[in-house]
Amino acid sequence: RGLTPDDTNGKDDIFVAEVGGQAPVAIDGSGENGQIHQVVAGDTISLTLRVKQAPKSPLKVALTSFGSGITVPASVTIPTGKTSVVFKATTSLEAYQQFAGVNATCNSRTIGTGIPVGNGELTLSANQVKAGATLTAKVRIATAPTSPMTFIVWSNGFAVPASVKISAGQKTKSFTISVPANTEPGYYYIQVYSPDYFFNGSVEVVK
Q1: Which of 77, 139, 143, 172 is most buried, judging by how many CB atoms fall within 10 Å of its CB?
Q2: Cβ atoms < 10 Å from Cβ of 164
Q3: Are 192 and 200 in contact (CB under 8 A)?
Q4: How far apart are the first and last CA of the chain?
Q5: Measured between alpha carbons, how far is 104 from 99 in angstroms, rounded to an integer?
Q6: Model pTM score
Q7: For 106-136, what is the HEC assignment?
């Protein structure tokens, strides 16, 4: 799959090229099948540079960032006999709503991947529960507010607070979600929003 700066398909895209004429290279995240999940602006993430065949001598690969919202080391080295190396990439607070990505170049071949960056996130303690369960949700934003910030909370079937508030100087707020005992199996949604933020999550209720 290819990725261009104006790509809006909402998917993680990975470029693959041949290094040394034989070893495909990819940049993977920590998600399933190497998926790169959205990160919060200002976060540092781990990425894995992979080659198909282990090099017979250390393989140095140059790294560069594209877009103004991410910083990476100048290069990484895949050790002899290994097929991957992990490196860190740091996003900036300005990365939100900008195009951020990483290029890797070796033997005149370049591959790259985009990094989706958001201004915050909603995380849930579980994504599959039974009726009667209790969950913990946490809202995290990239920049601490200078005064208390209120978020409206909504769900289509769970018991949630009407709102939560992130205190001045803080970036996170946790709250409890209760699943009614008579909840039917299916998918249920939680939304947390304010004039400047919108986060959502889903939970499956099973028998």
Answers
A1: 139
A2: 18
A3: yes
A4: 38
A5: 17
A6: 0.79
A7: ECCEEEEEEECEECEEEEECCCEEECCCEEE
* 40: its two tokens: 């919060």
Tokens, residue 42: 């200002």
Cβ–Cβ < 8 Å for 180, 132: yes
pLDDT tens string for the chain (207 positions)?
Answer: 333 344 434 434 333 333 443 344 789 887 667 788 889 999 999 999 998 888 889 999 999 998 778 999 999 999 999 999 999 999 998 888 777 899 999 888 889 998 989 999 999 999 999 999 999 999 999 999 999 999 999 999 999 999 999 999 999 999 999 999 999 999 999 999 999 999 999 999 999
DSSP letters for 80-100: TT-SEEEEEEEE-GGGTTS-E
